[in-house]
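ok, trying the design again with the full structure, not the truncated one.
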């Protein structure tokens, strides 16, 4: 069985840092404990650093998250066009994506064949329009039984 690889959204990392017990946080803990492939992007890294409360926390976040494995877009210009097309497809179907970053994260996940772990309803809505996009809030144990 092929090991699954994961992209973790900022919403999950922030909940993880706060010690929340949301399904996505419990899933992230499980993935980390099992040494599954968990990735960041530069955009998630940026958002985490922006949320720092003070310089000491900024330094800790920079050190920890900066040492994690990163994935990015494969071809910046082409990938941005694809991310814009995702936004366009959603808008045409009546789904408003609240953040441009979300469409970029979807494109990164697609290009790198990653499952996006999140706490954001926009990703669930995008998945109804972009069926090849794999995502979860960590509460779908029938699709990912090892999360139990």
């Amino acid at each position: 069985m092929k090991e699954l690889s994961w992209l973790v959204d900022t919403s999950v990392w922030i909940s993880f840092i706060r010690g929340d017990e949301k399904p996505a946080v419990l899933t992230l803990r499980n993935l980390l404990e099992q040494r599954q492939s968990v990735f960041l992007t530069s955009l998630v890294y940026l958002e985490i650093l922006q949320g720092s409360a003070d310089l000491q926390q900024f330094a800790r976040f920079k050190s920890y998250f900066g040492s994690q494995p990163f994935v990015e877009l494969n071809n910046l210009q082409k990938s941005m066009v694809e991310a814009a097309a995702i936004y366009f497809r959603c808008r045409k179907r009546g789904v408003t994506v609240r953040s441009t970053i979300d469409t970029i994260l979807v494109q990164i996940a697609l290009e790198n064949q990653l499952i996006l772990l999140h706490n954001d309803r926009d990703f669930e809505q995008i998945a109804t329009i972009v069926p090849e996009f794999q995502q979860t809030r960590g509460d779908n144990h029938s699709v990912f039984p090892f999360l139990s």
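Keeping the full-length input from now on. The chain has one domain: 5-143.
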